[in-house]
Amino acid sequence: MRKHLSYLLMLLLCISTALYAQDATPVVGKVWSIAKANAWYKQHKWINGADFLPSTAINQLEMWQADSFDAATIDKELGWAAGIGFNTMRVYLHSLAWKQDPAGFKRRMDRYLSIADRHHIKTVFVFFDDCWNKQAKIGKQPAPKPGIHNSGWVQDPGDPNYKQPANFPALEKYVKDVMTRFKADKRILLWDLYNEPGNSNKLTTSYPLLKSVFTWARAVNPQQPISAGLWAWDYDKLNAFQALNSDVITYHDYEEPQWHQRVIGMLRSHGRPMICTEYMARTRGSRFENIMPMLKKENIGAINWGLVDGKSNTKYAWDTPLPNGEEPKEWFHEVFRKDGTPYKQEEVDLIKKLNNIK
Which of 17, 123, 147 is nearest to 63 (CA)? Predict the structure, then answer.
């Protein structure tokens, strides 16, 4: 049954993308040519790394607000990442942190980029996000709820904010201000404009903001490519827009290798470089040992969710909370413990081998 469903969803995506391309899907601004995108990709060695939140932050606001920006922990943990050959981190921003202090927010971004650059790590910055808690508040962030995955992660711009056109001018100012400041910064690999649009049962109500953020980004015309990752194969309208407006195809896949391989085959039809910006959920069969070598063989970027066990609690599975806070039998995400020792030595040995690190 699952096999047939997977084939059906992929078929729907291929058909709907073609139909929308011919009919309803606008191409916003000037998308990079396929030749330009592939030439850009060839300039970089194999892209691999993690979605990064320092272990001392529960969410994007705690990472970026002045009172809780933790440069020492960022430096330490990116050092652990560099030690196993990771060369890219995907990092979420938050519009409220910018709204509170635009100049300070950009200074902290610059400081983060300087730290990452010292470790020879490029950055993928993410603007908007439809996942987890609906509303965010500036100020001190809540403590983690024991045993609950991403208990304090917050959407951006939040719900119902994301679908209210009155909010769009302020969001446009935010996106354009940040991108204009860093649009020629070689420390930034790529701009990821919207994480998982349509998640949290928003579906196509996220489409107006998705279309708008691409419009704003194209107006800035950064030197880095822009993208928004595909993640739900039955979201045909969103998928078509994302695929047709992205310079580089990014996507998420937490499935076992045979299903992930079929997604790769489907997305290859666009002819563009590909980066998997989320994978690796051990208890779902997506592991370093069975996915990362496949992505390297396919010359696809590999960015797994999570680096260091911390306040995000993403060592716990999405749908398997342990409210007493006990250690899960097997970690869902993350590579390192808080003291920098690997969760599984054989995993970091593999990562180092794939990155030619002795």
Answer: 123
Check: CB of residue 246 under 8 Å from CB of residue 272: yes
> Would the pLDDT of 38 be above 90?
yes
- The position carrying tokens 């711009």 is 157
> pTM for the full model?
0.95
Q: Pick from 148, 152, 153, 150: which is nearest to 328 by CA?
A: 148
- Confidence band, pLDDT 50/70/90 cuts, at residue 23: low
CA distance 342 to 358: 16
Q: Are 238 and 210 in contact (CB under 8 A)?
A: yes
In the chain, where are the structural domains located?
2-26+40-354
User: What is the pLDDT confidence band of residue 22, given thresholds at 50, 70 and 90?
Assistant: very low
The residue written with tokens 């994480």 in the block is 195
pLDDT number for residue 358: 86
**Tokens at residue 326, please?**
């006990």
> Which residues, 6 or more positions from 298, have their beta carbon under 8 angstroms from its beta carbon?
264, 274
CA 60 vs. chain centroid, Å, equals: 12
DSSP-derived letter for residue 144 is: P
First to last CA, the chain: 44
Architecture of domain 2-26+40-354: Alpha-Beta Barrel (3.20)
From the CB of residue 341, how many other CB atoms can be counted at a distance below 10 Å? 10
Return d(Cα 314, Cα 309) in angstroms, integer.
7
Question: Six-digit token pair at 88?
Answer: 């890219």
